[in-house]
Every structure is written in structure tokens, then in C-alpha cells.
Amino acid sequence: MTLATLALFIPACFALNIAPGPNNVLAFSNGARRGLLVGLAGGMGRMLPFAAMILLVGIGLGAVLAASETAFNAVKYAGAAYLIYVGWRMWRAKPQAETFAQSDEPVRALIRRDFLIAIGNPKAVAIFTAFFPQFTDLAQPLAPQYALLGGLFLVLECFAVALYAGFGAGFQGLLTPHRLHTLNKGVGGFLIFSGLALALNERH
Fold first, then answer.
1. DSSP conformation class of 160
2. In angstroms, rounded to a whole number, what is the distance separating the alpha carbons of residues 192 and 194?
3. Of 28, 93, 133, 202, which has the fewest CB atoms closer than 10 Å, so is most exposed?
4. Distance (Å, rounded) from C-alpha 46 to C-alpha 115?
């Protein structure tokens, strides 16, 4: 893989990494409520699902999911339901509970939430299936190329998590109980919207 190819891949990939999807919005929320380090730790929950998806695409199973309407829809609706569930809980939480209970929420719970949202999004497989091949050389062994591209994607994803968690942490000192309540409603509403959009979006 040439340096010219990597020079094209890295900025294009980072544009995908920093898109304001559900996982990144959660990283911002976690950073705002708990600080940079906790927000960054919570965002690591997505890394295992993304690594698994890259592996599946690399060995060809991503094409199976891309071809199977039933399998794709099963994952899509499960992911949409979980997004709506998490969004509804955040929307309905009372201000007092947000101030105390959520601030004591274990980091492993944040990691698990990020993990489940990432694994319930079949669009990620579609992105890897469509995006990575554009930067591979079919005349060369594909496994090392996918390993390199996948590794770079995960590193850039870590930077995206840090970016969103850092932005959230910048607002931490400004959060009163009322503003925290507003933030949770905003994040909850975004997750509900994302879940509905995922469920209703026709596959292309």
C-alpha cells in the first residue's frame, strides 16, 4: 500500500470517524457529565464491535450480511430498539437522579452502552464493505491491507472519541442540574431520532 493511498485514506476515514452519530454524541454527553477520562473510557466500548466488523468484512462475511435482507434487518431493528430504549431512559430521567445517580454510574456501564449501540448498527458493516475496497490493491494480498486500514480506522476512532469527550468536558463546569437535565433530554431525543431513522431507513 503506497503512501499516496494512505494520504487519501486517512482524511477520508477521519471524516467518517467524526460524523456526529449516536456513539459520538454519547461520548460528548459522558464527557460533559463525568469528564474527559471517563468520557474517553466509555467510548472504548465501540472498539471491539468495530474491530469485529472489520474482520468480518475482511474475510468476506460482510458481503453475506450485505446480501441478506433478513439478517441485515434483524440487526437493524434490534439496534434501533436499543437506541430508542436508551434515549427514552435519558429523556425520562428526573433532574435529581441525573445529578447524583448518573454521576455515580460505573464506567463499565458506559462502556457496555457504547458497545451495544455500536454492535447494533449494521450500517457500519455497509460502510466498511463499501469504503475499504476503494483503498485496496487487488493485485496484492488483501489480509495485510485490511489489517492496516482497520488498525488506522480504530486509531482514528480513538481520536474521535477523545475529541467529542474533550468538547463535552469543556462544558462540564457550566452544567447546573437544569442544564444537565436539558443535555440529557437533547441526547435522549437524538438517540430516539437515530433509532427511528435507522428502523425506517430503506436499505440501498
1. H
2. 5
3. 202
4. 5
